[in-house]
Amino acid sequence: MGCDPVLMPEPQIVVMNTPDHPRNGEGDIIALRGGDLLLGYGRWNANGDDFGAAEIWSKISHDGGKTWGDDRLLVANEGKVTTFEVGFVRLPDKAILLSYCVKESTEDCSICFRRSTDEGLTWGERVKYTIPAPYTGYTGINNGRLIRLRSGRLLLAAYDGWVRGTVIVSFVLYSDDNGRTWTKSTDVDARDVRPDDKYGADEPAVVELKDGRVMMIARTDFGVILKAYSTDHGTTWGKPEPIQGVVSPNSPASIARIPKTGDLLLIWNNNTSARNPLNSAVSRDEGLTWQHVRVVDFGPASLCYTSITPVGNRVLLTYYGRGGLALRSLPYGWFYEKETLATPWTWDGPVDEMRAGARWRLTRGACLYIQDMPASWDGSRDAEVEATVVLRSLLAGKRATSMLWIGDHSPNSSCALYLAAGEKTDAVSFSETMDPKYEVGDVGQPHRYRIVTHHQTGAVDLFVDGSTQPVLSTQLGPVLGQYNLNRILYGDPKVDFLGGDSDLVGISWKDGG
What we know:
Helix content is 3%, strand content 41%. The chain is mostly beta strands and 513 residues long.
């Protein structure tokens, strides 16, 4: 059986949401000395928002993560609001250290620690970190953010801000005495990249590099993941910079090393606005470049707040899934396989020239490639080009739809490899409208799709696709969020994607000059 995400089994929902507990997630896993796995996670009561009452619960797996049981309260709600954000790390003395957050109010959040010397059965006295003035005191972490360096130093990626209009800054807490005391590092500030930023660098993660440096990645609200480096084991940090070739919504990413290969693994949402799909990528050069982008999960849900736990030959991923706390257990080799979801620019079928007025039938999984005709494009710079496609559904009760991607012939620009759009001077803007409006359910009638582009090159490719698979592919992830097409893509029963065909009634070009 292949590893295509379409064919993979559904992720295991380890903790199902219920009316009494509508939110379960933000977990972490640690291997116990006897071979079992310990899962900790946040369990909310009736109010499942960020300021609803929650406590930390645990489950045990005796079979490598295939099944989970032995439900037990790990840490009761210690705050006036909530307690969550679990992280585990094994200490040199074989004890387990637990990190978590306690919220006392909407403006007061603290980081706490506990130790267990009996493999998580009991936990010792709480150690609370208090951030010094002039920080806000709304100081938080994500799940699965606690690591131990080769030197033995502990690092916990953290942040402060957001309340009272403050810009969030990221940093680490570090400990050289196995978590008994903690010291704050210098800050990583998104305003070093975008001076007018009002949000900040949020919910960071850290990983130790082979040369001894530590790399931090942090969430932003301007479509990128920031990275920064420390050359002194996390004490001070250089200025951040965007990770090249990676886009992200305002959502946290996770990073870890795959022990079997020594490469870095990134888990994030390859999208500029939506926390969907959930993607993976591998770096063989310590985070300078990322390859083997794959879809871990997709669908109409926010897939986020992940943890990464390598266990033997597999990697265990936890995250908010569809209906509860999800677990994906994947052999480490899966992350290196070629993504098998079709994409327009990897279509293996014949390349056909499309003439205006020609009629083609779009079948599921197919893609038409239309090369620009010189007569209809005068090569003017910064021209507005309008393409209109008219489609009609061939399935009763379903509407027709398609996706169009326009790009130039340079190997690293525009929509041909959409991850690189905007990196060069050949910037692209893209707008899409439908006539009649999306809500109109006039199935069986032609639907007109008008696409307007602005290009600074004279050569254009137009891809027309009527399949669900390409639009769910990893490479198109950023496009989906950037152009707000999610409701078209994700399962509306009136849309002809999942099983039917569409007629391409006509296509026309107009150069706006």
